[in-house]
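Notebook p. 47: complex prediction with 2'-O-acetyl adenosine-5-diphosphoribose.
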Amino acid sequence: MRENSIDAIVRRIGPSARVTVLTGAGVSAASGVPTFRGKDGLWKSYAAERLATPEAFASDPRLVWEWYDWRRTLISRCRPNGAHRTLALWGRRYEGFRLITQNVDGLDEKAGSEGVIRFHGSIWEVFCLDGCARSPRRWVLDEAPLGHIPPSCPWCGGLVRPGVVWFGEGIDPEVLRRADAALDCDLFLAVGTSALVYPAAGLVDAARRRGAFTVEINREATPATGRVDLAVQGGAEEVLGLLERRLGGRE
Ligand code: OAD
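Predicted complex, structure tokens below:
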């Protein structure tokens, strides 16, 4: 069964194929980055949904920054795994390859991926909450742990916030445009995502409506499992590794 699934995917990946991959927290799980949901998906008993909101930040910026500082410090010690490396390799090998990630950890770039469509932003970027005129639109702040919490804007002294998308906020229009263009593909793989958070969760359905063959790779069933053409159960690092061994062996 697993062999047939791997075959069905491998047949659709080739030099001229347009392949789009959407990744979620499951892809970084093998690197030691905690996922959002599930038994390890909590921090000090706060759910991500309660901390990753503009309202939470407005009412307690220190608490929200403590959560981000904890995650940033943890992520700074993590290295890309085989899944990140395989995706980076495909990006170099296949001209029509595009990677959309919901992950904010930057491990794809560390593995060598370029042009990643960062659907939910980056945990390593910040911007001035007041949008003061002198500060850049966003900038990199990669000190982890931070020397001072909450960090302040070097230009106006006001609060800065993480450069990530919070619940209730819209996706950057340019990112949406690039993600939309990536839906025109032959093969769409949704890897390691719980398919619960929209609009990202709707991308796989949109790609299918446009004619892509859609595949889910996940350790567990998700709401998307019944809506894709093929669901492969397994770890991202393991299944992408299997695919790459077959693809690499073919060339
Ligand atoms: P979740 O934590 O919701 O889901 C992680 C998924 O990965 C689950 O479906 C797991 O079964 C699966 N999984 C775990 N380990 C895996 C492995 N080794 N290989 C394959 N799959 C594995 O993470 P996301 O779907 O990414 O939003 O969450 C979506 C968004 O919700 C995140 O981007 C974040 C969060 O709140 C923002 O930060 C805006």
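Notes: The chain has a mean pLDDT of 94. The pocket of 2'-O-acetyl adenosine-5-diphosphoribose is lined by residues 24-26, 29-30, 35-37, 41, 48, 52, 102, 104, 120, 164-165, 192-194, 196-197, 218-220, 222, 235-236 (CB under 6 Å).
Next step: compare against the earlier run before touching the bench.
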